[in-house]
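hey so u asked for the seq, here:
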Amino acid sequence: MNIDIISAKKELPIIGKYIIYTVAVLSSLFHLWVNTIGVIPEIERNAIHYIFMLSLVFLMYPAFGKNRFILFDYLCLLLVVAVGFYLLIFDEALHARNEVMVVSDVIFATAAVLILFEATRRAVGLTIPILSLIFISYALFLGDYFEGIWNFPGVTYTRLMYRMYFAPDGIFGSIATISSTFVILFVIFASFLLYSGAGSFIINLAMALMGKRVGGPAKIAVFASGIMGSISGSAVANTSATGSITIPLMKRVGFKAEFAAAVEAAASTGGQILPPIMGAGAFIMSQWTGISYVNIILVAFMPAILYYITIIFYVHLRAKKKSFAVLKDEEIPNIKDVLKDGWSFIIPIIILIGLLIYGYTPTFSAAVGIIAVVVCSYFNKNSRMGLHSILDALALGSLNMVTTGTILLCAGIVVEVIILTGLGLKFSMLISMLAGHSLIITLLLVALAATILGMGLPVTASYIVLAVLTAPSILALMNAGYLAAHFNISLQDALNPQVAQGLMHFIPENIKKSSLLAAHMAIFWFSQTSNVTPPICLASYAAAGIAKADPIKTGFISLALAKGLYIIPFLFIYTPILFTGPLFDSIETIILATIGLFSLAVLFEGYYITTLNTVYRLFFGLSGLLMLLPSFYYHIAGLCLFIIMTFILFSKKKATSHKF
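ran it, structure tokens below
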């Protein structure tokens, strides 16, 4: 039993740490049981999930900056258990009364909301509780002060509390279901994998593969942080974990502190878009769109690889321009030794992916994957997981889930109000008016909104809010032509998000799923930008702290390295890069987009074969832009320009070398 894995934010006696450890283990065991062989009603499972997540918050996070347990903490813990068990005991009684709430129902529903606000405040700050409170105020009375489409006459307090506490879209509704099933099981799987020693294997593998290459340490960071980020599901946590190794290596071979930190931040941020274990948003996307999780991860793989290739382009060009050294031979592990010691870590991931592709549910696949980690750990005597290691991994799984679980539970409040008041359609109509029915301007506005929201919201919460508010607008614009042609309505009516949403059920399944996937994937990618976009860029801040670099400068460099998060989503909408069209078109798009992104890297780095002047850089920028535009003829023009410029630079370098 290793209580050192508990990173509580307040001072705890030994007994307190053992209590947290025990609660975390019981939480993981419950979630494994209920998602495999256990059968209980959904709302009861979510109520117990609520009890576990919030109890851990109040055990670990202090109130009002006080670094110890106070009476208020005990009161909060008591309320969490009370409101959870009240729902377990009296849910059927409410249905027997035909959904008529009595005074005790209202009191406990109110307590459930308030105590959730306090838990969220402790775990992630004030932004999400304040945002939720504003939404609640809009539903109760604030909406009545607005005019036009924003007017909402309000609902009674009792009705709102019923929707929050008992309804299928409130605190214990669909978002809580995603949290208590898919998300937590994958977090537990990741904890088992990392606790068994996979983290060291990934870093050693990255060093063995990339150590002797130009800019090797930075490429190690990209490789290791990508895989580790996909497993851990947290850009900030991954930056801290792998950055402590990769950033000093990068600085030692010549990279400036800000650039080294930015590479780590950008690479770690991409972990949540890289299959097979993407962030919590991927499970929400699957639930909302009706597209299977396996389909999402299959089509998401190539764009994610493209994002990482883009970062490597910048790293490679910077290292070549500065003539950085490579790592010494004695610093690089032997690839055969690394694979010999760590090949068993690959098996659970292969099993997980195989089960998903074969059609098993994500929860079942994750549970089998956890068992596979334990079994495969015995293939290597240095990584065998005994009872204590298994208990530690179980505890770590729930501890790593606390912040995400609390955010998702609180997000249920926002989602419920949006559904109740129709705010999603109203916001989409506003975007349509601002964009003038232009899809590209709409996407730019969504990207801007994602950046602004990301300054205060974690990426999962940002995706939830953006998806509910902006997806109808994007879908209306994507499907307007089809609706106008097949339903005998004007293009103006087809562009109305309310009309488009009403007709979505009648659109052929393949067209509907293609547009849903593209729209939600674009929003999902935009929501990741907050980790690297100044002024509040948490992954960049974490990396800057390790590198002893300026955080704002690091943020701007991170943004430059991670600009694929802004560019590639446009390809989702305008091209078949998600394999939503003919296979040849998809492959052609991927190849030309790769070369186009390399050309943009040349534009920004000012180096390719040799140092470039402004004119050459602009030509490469034009070439990259043409290859990213959704037209085969533009692609050919951009590719020809790239080839011509490459030939000129090679000729120029050859002529220069002959002079000497």
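The CA atoms of residues 243 and 264 lie 6 Å apart. The longest strand covers residues 607-608.
lmk if thats what u needed
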